[in-house]
Amino acid sequence: MLATAEGAAVAAGRLLLDRWSGPATGRATKTTPTDEVSDADRASEALIVAAIRRTYPDDAIVSEEGGGSGGTSGRRWLVDPLDGTVNYLYRIPQWCVTIACADARGPLVGVTYDPTRDELFSAVRGEGAWLRASADASGARRLAVSRVADLGLALLADGFSYSAEERREQARREALIVPAVRDVRRMGSAALDLAWVAGSRLDAYAESGGHEWDCAAGRLLVSEAGGMLSETKGVRPDAPTLVASGPGIHQALVALLLRVQGPRDLP
User: Collapsing DSSP states into helix, strand and coil, what is residue 18?
Assistant: First the structure.
């Protein structure tokens, strides 16, 4: 499963990188006018889905652009063929391909590939999280989360909704969070944010409303790198905030997020 995920992620990432310098085609919107998809997303998804189906035809596939299928094995592949589409369309080098395979207990394997840096993050349940500095490299470095123990020294990554109303509430909360931490980064790819928490490039991540295909691989990377994961109330009842960090600040960060919540949920 790991070999399938890694191979598909790298092949899709290189396809996306080849297309990145040309004009975007097939652009369309999804949930809001700022939530975009393009032919690049669709081509990446088709490549990944075909690779999984060849090797695991009985597994279910859940993919962001809807190219998945049902299965009978009890396993599900969770695919985001291009996490950070807006960055991709704006030529900002902060986007990735992320793939996980999960069973009833959660993710079994997780892979996030960053094509612009040629970095491959991989994790297997119970076997740790690893980073290959090049997808073709033979060796890998074991990942470990940050050891920072003071929330005031923590560098936090987060993100915002495509909905203007939800962003307004998130901005209110952000104003209360910023003074309590070292600083906040909003970089536009949840999957890479989580991979960077696993590799201690960030101390923590917190975002409301992410989809399971965005975060499944990242959850496994963080937990296998020694981190902690929690969910707190989000801006909508059906969109909890995923919190990921090293253990030294986790409870303090969760407590901070609970303190800044509003009196009511958005509809």
Answer: helix
